[in-house]
Amino acid sequence: MTALFALATSLLWGLADFGGGLLTRRSPALTVVVVSQTVAAAVLGVVVAATDGWSEAGPRLWFAFAAGLVGPVAMLSFYKALALGPMGVVSPLATLSVAVPVTVGLTLGERPALLQVAGIAVAVAGVVLAGGPRLGGAAVQRQAIWLTLVAALGFGTVFALIAEASTTVTGLFLALFVQRVTNVAAGGTALYLSARRGTAVLPRGGFPWRSLPALAFVGLADVAANGTYSVAAHHGPVTVAAVLASLYPVVTALAARGFLRERLRAIQAAGAGLALLGTLLLATG
What we know:
75% helix
């Protein structure tokens, strides 16, 4: 079950990152984050009310609140990086996020089996190769690299925090709702301050109503990924769940190949194969 939910996480995050990066090429990154997370918060609010999630309120929600503060910084940084550089080059750097939850798992005493250790090494190597490098292409801006490193640290922290935010399904809905409301509050405040400074917070044509379905998809896919990761982390070793969930750059790179016609080089195809092999080793280890 851990492998299944963690792989679902990588699929959802990969598609959300692709969509977010694409939208950020047309709209300010902060606006993309705030609008997409607002839609997710609204949907989660309905789910929490329908499942009586408020009965699960407790001290663990502070983890969700902290994740909600870190999340917008990570998403904003990553969406900006994806807009600045080729997705197939930028996205692999985000796999460094796996270091945070893996370190937490090892600190808590988790010891993966030898086969799983091999799977971790193969999967991480495969993700890096699958995303790039784009040999002979344009150099990636230094700003994009730094933004991606900031995002990786943020995503890894959210991984660790959201896994501790609940122990039940209804509690998970409430935790995700609190996280998203915090996302919107923090991002909305930053958006307001940006507008006050005269920074453009909307594209030239005004609010991107035509992009609203895509923005909604990004927000809902992101929150669903947080949920599936939390389930994966509670049903198996965090080290395994985190590595499998970190395969999302492969999804982003393949989406860029399919929709943007970014060329998939031989080294990237080999990386995708290694990522699949590492996944199989983790799942059977």
